[in-house]
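Hi R.,

Here's the input for the 2'-deoxycytidine-5'-monophosphate complex you asked about:
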Amino acid sequence: MDIYQIAIDGPSGSGKSTLAKGVSKRLGIMYLDTGAMYRTCGLYAIKKGVDPKDEAKVKELMDQMDLKIEFKDGEQHMIIDGEDVTGQIRTPEVSRAASNISTLPVVRSKMVDMQRKIAKEQSFVLDGRDIGSNVLPDAKYKFFLTASAEIRAERRVKELNERGDFSQNYEEVLKDIKWRDEQDSTRSNAPLVKVADAIEIDTSKITIEETLEALLAQVKE
Ligand code: DC
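And here is the predicted structure with 2'-deoxycytidine-5'-monophosphate in place:
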């Protein structure tokens, strides 16, 4: 069977990862969460005491970092210097470090190379900000998810609370989402943009299940 890729881009909290996981399961293809890769770089900078905006220091870090991605039972594991850090990359501190470090070309080029290598081995759905525009401009299917910042913040709070995490309230989450939107969309290097051939899905008024069906209907056509 042919190898193909599905690109799902959109801002934080638009439902990309839930959707990509659903696509992966329904179509029996692999899922690569590219945000987890930038998060792991951000975490590494924090661990090493490096400012994620300090380009020269981050370059040294990138040269020494031994980053591996392993897929076990359909779950993506991020390994740095032999340590599985998957459980450490979802904190608000790491989110901010990831957004900062992902603006640097030295980081992006390394991650994009890895993403392209991984995605050409077998069929993949990838989610991120620049998959359709930059990583895989020839992806067979491209989707761009949108939803208002308020709705995305509500969803994020609900998700955190369901996990027993009450550390951030709605206002804090909303502020964080707006800050990341601004930064991810205005950076000069591969910003978040909808490319002309991506199918836009506004997830504000439909559930994730409905979004998944809408997306799969396009793929089946
Ligand atoms: O999707 P996420 O929230 O896990 O992504 C974390 C950060 O990484 C986000 O602020 C933007 C950045 N990112 C990126 O620049 N390019 C990607 N393909 C994926 C994520």
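One thing worth noting: Strands lie at 5-9, 30-33, 67-72, 75-80, 83-84, 124-128, 141-146, 199-202.

Cheers,
M.
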